[in-house]
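Database export, one record per block. Field names are fixed; values are copied verbatim from the stored entry.
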Amino acid sequence: MNNNEVIVIDTETTSKFKEKALIVEIAAIKLDCNSFKYQILYNSLCNPNLTKEMLEQTWICQNGYIKSEEILKAKPDSIIAKELRSALHNYQWTTFNLEYDGAILARNPWNIRKNKSKCIMKAAKPVCGIPHHYYGIKFPSLNEANKKLLNRSQPETHRALTDATIATEVLIYLIKNGHYKCK
């Protein structure tokens, strides 16, 4: 395993609940933890074998982020999963919200369980320091971390490549400032 590089993955899914969520788009960005250069490793829509009617009931389609027709034209998720596993090879990987994405990626057809790194969101929590109205400090959303750490504000796109890029740039900030170490 290359300890100087980490893959940042983002998924777009059919549900905000990890137990029900199926991936409809996935992106992976390879980050060199020393030079902070990054490149797109993988980016694709994927078809989780749902009907058009079923897809149109999902939050991602209902809110207009991705059209059901786009998903239906994509390769099956089983093929995308195989391609992604091959691209990941022996790299360490993470996501902004590892508890959510990691749970989905561990299931069939993805079966991506090995070489997980630390969660970006958990590392960003104390640095962002956003108060929660009931208890201490809250876990920041990706947009909150982007605004707080990188001083940027942009509309939520809910597209995997855009979100993976933002998560990678947040991760670079955390590494440069001593709040995250690549394994």
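Remark 1: The CA atoms of residues 67 and 104 lie 21 Å apart.
Remark 2: The helical segments are 52-55, 59-62, 68-73, 77-88, 98-106, 120-128, 142-150, 160-176.
End of record.
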